[in-house]
């Protein structure tokens, strides 16, 4: 059994102010090429199909084109899709029953009523059946309707995922694959994150990988950097494209998973991807940067850090003559570093009450009243006491 593991397409995404639709079309075409070449049994997409819950017409038609071209390829390839936190579960579920007949299996929503279960797709190879369980992005609140009389429902993300998987009564004598879009963490490991991901603050959404251990492979989405979680068979494939400057150093590749007989560990092969435009960071003095610009990569998305001690004359205009897609221009010299230090010094001096007052004024557009200030002082005293 061979399948492609994709996730986080984020179709319709913008990088700074540039639309990435051309880049996405280009990279999805490369995926189609790989499907023709490698003839996988399935293409799995582990959530975040679109960048927005209400995608643009342009984004929808690009994904439609991708699915149509996949469906035209012979021998037929199954397509397995779950929704991510960026997708609208209902919109993705639209027409999913009809699409199922085309071998396109979409799970938009997690079971929310008694009697509902995860969408399961069974594919067969020379070693027998493989059950793919499609677990869309979920929060503990989504599964309140599953509660049995007198049963306590899970409160944390970890408990909620465990709960949903345990009620499936998965046949562990068979080969099973899970597709999921959550923030999974292993034993004490902290996953690598980057700037294009969207998380809730405080890390309350993390899910322990314990319940995944029984699967031959878990195809994950959510994190945009490719990485395994504790074991090689629980894996984030990452995005097909670099979606932030913080990913400039990433290598994006197509993940191809192969399952042998039951009990044999799944293998993952990485195939190179060739973006239309790369995302790069360039650092140096303006004249050096202008002189060293090569002909071949002038259309890349670039983040420039200028180190000139003397502020150059209209750097943006000069750089635009050479580079067509400039994401940002930063200055890093003695002056900017000194300003940063001064800023840090100030921040250290300020007491918590002043910091909060400034914050409140910025967000609310008014100062704290005397009464509110009193409350705040009281709370701060209490915290200090503890
Ligand atoms: Mn994502």
From TrEMBL:
Keywords: DNA recombination, DNA replication, Endonuclease, Exonuclease, Hydrolase, Nuclease. InterPro entries: Calcineurin-like_PHP, DNA_Repair-Maintenance_Comp, Mre11_N, SbcD, SbcD_C. The keyword Nuclease applies. Residues 1-101 form the Calcineurin-like phosphoesterase domain. CDD domains: MPP_Mre11_N. Residues 275-362 form the Nuclease SbcCD subunit D C-terminal domain. Heterodimer of SbcC and SbcD. Belongs to the SbcD family. This is Nuclease SbcCD subunit D. It comes from Faecalicatena faecalis.
């Amino acid at each position: 059994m061979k399948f492609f593991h994709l996730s986080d397409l984020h179709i319709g995404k913008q990088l700074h102010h540039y639309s990435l639709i051309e880049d996405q079309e280009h990279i999805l075409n490369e995926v189609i090429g790989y499907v023709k070449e490698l003839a996988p049994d399935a293409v799995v997409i582990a959530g975040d199909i679109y960048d927005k819950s209400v995608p643009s017409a342009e984004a929808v038609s690009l994904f439609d084109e991708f699915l149509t071209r996949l469906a035209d390829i012979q021998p037929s390839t199954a397509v397995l899709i779950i929704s991510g936190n960026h997708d609208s579960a209902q919109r993705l579920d639209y027409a999913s029953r009809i699409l199922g007949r085309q071998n396109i299996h979409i799970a938009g929503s997690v079971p929310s009523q008694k009697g509902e279960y995860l969408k399961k797709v069974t594919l067969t190879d020379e070693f027998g059946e493989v059950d793919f369980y499609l677990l869309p992005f979920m929060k503990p609140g989504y599964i309140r309707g599953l509660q049995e009389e007198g049963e306590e429902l899970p409160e944390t993300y970890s408990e909620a995922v465990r709960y949903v998987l345990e009620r499936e009564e998965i046949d562990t004598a068979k080969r099973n694959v899970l597709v999921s879009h959550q923030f999974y963490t292993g034993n004490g490991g902290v996953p690598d994150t980057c700037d294009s991901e969207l998380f809730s603050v405080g890390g309350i959404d993390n899910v322990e990988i314990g319940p995944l251990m029984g699967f031959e492979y878990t195809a994950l989405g959510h994190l945009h950097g490719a990485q395994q979680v504790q074991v090689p068979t629980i894996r984030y494939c990452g995005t097909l494209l670099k979606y932030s400057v913080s990913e400039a150093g990433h290598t994006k590749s197509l993940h191809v998973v192969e399952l042998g007989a039951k009990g044999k560990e799944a293998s993952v092969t990485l195939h190179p991807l060739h973006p239309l435009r790369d995302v790069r960071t360039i650092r140096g003095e303006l004249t050096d940067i202008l002189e060293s610009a090569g002909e071949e990569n002038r259309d890349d998305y670039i983040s420039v850090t200028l180190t000139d001690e003397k502020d150059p004359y209209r750097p943006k205009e000069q750089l635009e003559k050479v580079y067509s897609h400039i994401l940002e221009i930063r200055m890093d010299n003695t002056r900017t570093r000194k300003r940063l230090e001064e800023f840090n010094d100030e921040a250290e001096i300020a007491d918590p009450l002043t910091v909060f007052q400034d914050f409140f004024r910025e967000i609310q557009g008014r100062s704290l009243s005397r009464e509110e200030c009193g409350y705040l002082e009281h709370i701060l005293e209490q915290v200090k006491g503890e």
